[in-house]
From TrEMBL:
One MF annotation (Gene Ontology) recorded for this entry: dioxygenase activity
InterPro entries (alphabetical): AlphaKG_dependent_hydroxylases, TauD-like_sf, TauD/TfdA-like
Protein name: TauD/TfdA family dioxygenase
Pfam families: TauD
Glycoprotein among keywords: no
Protein keywords: Dioxygenase, Iron, Oxidoreductase
PANTHER family associated with the record: GAMMA-BUTYROBETAINE HYDROXYLASE-RELATED, TAUD_TFDA-LIKE DOMAIN-CONTAINING PROTEIN
Organism: Pseudonocardia eucalypti
Amino acid sequence: MSTPHASSLRGLEVSPGKPPILRAELTGDAPTWVAEHRDALHAVIDEHGALLVRGLGLGDTGQVGAVFQRLASGGLMGERESFAPRTAYAPGVYSSTKWQPNEPMCMHHELSYALEFPNLMMFACRTAPGAGGATAVCDSAAVLDALPADLVARFEREGWLLSRNYNDEMGASYAEAFGTADRGAVEDYCRANAIDFEWQSGGGLRTWQRRYAVVAHPISGRNCWFNQIAFLNEWTLDPDVREFLVDVYGRESLPFNTHFGNGDPVGPDIVHLLNQVYQANTRREPWQSGDLLLVDNIRTAHSREPFQGPREVLVGLGDPVGMGGFSAEVTA
């Protein structure tokens, strides 16, 4: 039996500055079409890192869930350690992260701070926004090649450190992030996942976890820049928002922040550089209602651009991958 290839899909468009776009020739329902073309769709993702499928007419939550199930050969996974709330519609089917529409979510790899993360990200657009709101993508191997060698070497050597403060006032509470309000269960999860933790007066929780910043892709073996160093750093926040949070809570109590693996701060110059490199390698295509976007979460970072008007995009986390991280021996 021959191996499916991207060229076996008719109507595939590959253009500079955009993810590959496939205009589906749908004769039946979307889940059946996806099941029939799954291997060829995965071949495109393996070749290009992402694929936008147009013409499936996705809208119903059950239909979207069935499409996600057929695409994720390794199954769907639930989300733990979320940094902002989501709505769960079905097992493995979520709303987009709740984030201010006028604020961008810069490039990141989903759950790259966790020991288990999805290899395949799936996005289904039920309602396209009136303006903006694209889920843009970026080749992480290209980002790695474009970054200064000494900076990459330090992150390869030390990893990166994520610090988080969970409370009921900003971001996700620990009950939302860990799926339980039971302190003992939260502590067990942290110990099992190389996360240092400290309970705060008033019931809050502070955690630290050290992870790899560069990983080898499980299929190609190519090294990829894989982390959320820029996205979850204080200097990516809107300046007014950052100033307010620092004034009210202090830098040590920000909802999240990132550091070098030894605890040193990642300053605004580095964050600016990272976001510049991401921008130089970004591909985007405006959403149309019914679209399906498939993203190799290790090879390809994704973002969410500011938007106006209603926007509803469902998210599926597929084909979970387990990877060890540095132990969280250093606290900031």
